[in-house]
Description:
By secondary structure, this protein is α/β, with parallel strands linked by helices. About 45% of the residues lie in helices and about 15% in strands. The protein folds into 2 domains: about 10-125 and about 290-305, Aspartate/ornithine carbamoyltransferase (Rossmann fold), CATH 3.40.50; about 130-285, 3-Layer(aba) Sandwich (Rossmann fold), CATH 3.40.50. The radius of gyration is 19 Å and the shape is globular. The protein binds phosphoric acid mono(formamide)ester and norvaline (NVA).
Amino acid sequence: MGRDFIDLWNLDPEEAWYIVRRIAKVKGGEEEIGRPLEGKNIALLFTKPSTRTRVSFEVAINQLGGNCFFLQENQLQLSRGEDVKDTSRTLSRYLDGIIIRTSSHSWLEEFARWSSIPVINALTDKSHPCQILSDVFTLYEKFGEEVKNIKIAYLGDGNNVCNTWLVGAGLFGLNLFVATPEDYGPDSYYLQAGLDLSNFTGGNVYLTTNPEEAVRDADVVYTDVWFSMGQERDPEKLESLRKFQVSDELLSKAKESVLVMHCLPANKGEEITEEVFEKFADFIFTQAENRLHTQKVLLEFLFTQR
Ligand code: CP
Ligand code: NVA
């Protein structure tokens, strides 16, 4: 019982909107969530650091009545070369679900292929679906149904978060402008998925190498680190990203009411200036808080589906 959540396209638009609207109602106390994970054992297997994703999932599982525990890769036989498929088949016999953060997206897909329990992607090199689901909720909380009409700009590296934003814009029918350097653009598969979904939902996904074009009259400017976990700090990449820094100067092209988002952790002085970060800190930490509200409704949804 239950469903995988490896990429945002594992939800259809109706399901995705149901989740976002339910998060609003549960957070606002209008609807109860109860303890749908009572008696369930869910593990977190993370091979990369995490503050928000790990802690929000652990708290969410506890609040929903489930039992969770953290698995360290170096203490599993995986670290001695045990097959992914054997690890997956074994853990499926003990657990009710598993939440995985790892480098290789294809490794996660292989794990999920062999698993008979729900597998949730807590970040890979390609995607971070829990993050963008939560971020769409944060925008919905702010703009309500108008969220479909605002202009969202993503600036910086074409990384896992950027890839997932493209799919998220397609899934929810949002207007997204992505500005990255030519050599550091998003993954073409995720871009195509975003475009295909947009055709169904009425979303708009644009790609540019001009940060000003993306930011012009934007309602929301979103950024993420220029060097993701595990990436080398390549000086050439640093140089080509400089003009994508979210600064007061760049933001002066956006709407006066512009909001700035960051999935965190931030590397202030690179993708965002300290001044801009502090000006929008309250919103950015609400964005972080919403990870918890989102995980709860997402877990309820995934674990109560046949
Ligand atoms: N945004 C995010 O996923 O944060 P962590 O790396 O701290 O989990
Ligand atoms: N792109 C970042 C996101 C961290 C939440 C990384 O992969 O490190």
